[in-house]
């Protein structure tokens, strides 16, 4: 038997989807809970006293009144943009040309890619994030760098080579054929290797010709167990640009659908300015919409009506969208998601926000049976939150009437100081 470790504290457990059912029927906090870990996985979740009595050999780590919850799952990010986060905000296209593309060109150097991959995983772990779906750059080495850094930590990540064959600098362009060939070689090497998961990655329709989208659609058809990630309807001027580039398309989503890039394992970032047909099709095929609220606010894209998409039965995840997003913190991202929903008259409960940042995002990545919940058999990817991490939060908690008010205060006011510990595959980081 491998070494067993028992974490005790307040434990957050899910029993359903709080976006579609009453939150208090779906999410609960055990004030005297425990999580038993053996090796890389969770063995049991329950009352701390019961688990301690049944497993006297386990090392006990007491977190007191801290909240033990699943590690955060960031469903859309750009690790190559780590060094340029919080660059002065412009509109999307200007921002890409001014900041993003010059930084991504640096990833032609494998040593630089490795440096940023390590830095990114350090920064996200410090914020309680244990899994992410990240775009890489056009360079195969940028994919290798993130997968290699994650493998050394026993960490689950999703990534893929970003493909662009037009409307990008010459040194960041590939071709339809090289995008297919490079992506195929990378996915055959990495996908399913330990905890690595590959995502076929056209950046978005404006930077791919129809031939490239078709080539990547064909690759996805050949490897349907892979994910596919891209961007969709982030800004109105972007939507207009797509309309000019694809005049025969019914709408933005159709540029992907026509080329075999629409499906349940597709991850569509932003998706703010959707037409009714697009919403219906995403719901029909169960295509995943990834909400990026800090990025949407920072670049001036708009406020996603997440509750309306949930009501339409579109699967939803939550993401920082690092570099366009203005924080590595999923706490800050949850706070921004709350504020965005308020714009549409739908306040999200803390339980719904925590679910979105963990199990909800895990489900969008088709990893809900492995991560995103404190459940037996799941990987021991865990975040421990101090619910009184700063003076401002503590004074609010001292006046609160329930643990859920404490959780909400930490969501709205918290940062990396709220992270008491981050566990990845049973190892404290």
Quick tags:
429 residues; Urease, subunit C, domain 1; TIM Barrel; 2 domains; 9-stranded parallel beta sheet; 16 helices; 23% strand
Shape type: globular
How many β-strand stretches? 16
CATH topology of the largest domain: TIM Barrel
Provide the domain count.
Answer: 2
Instruction: State the CATH architecture of the largest domain.
Output: Alpha-Beta Barrel
Residue share in β-strands: 15-25%
What's the gyration radius in Å?
21 Å
Question: What's the CATH H-level superfamily name of the largest domain?
Answer: Metal-dependent hydrolases
Structural class call reads alpha/beta
| Assembly status | single chain
Low-confidence segments, given as residue ranges, are: none
How is the main sheet built? 9 strands, parallel
Report how far apart the termini are: 23 Å
**What's the tally of helices?**
16
CATH class of the largest domain: Alpha Beta
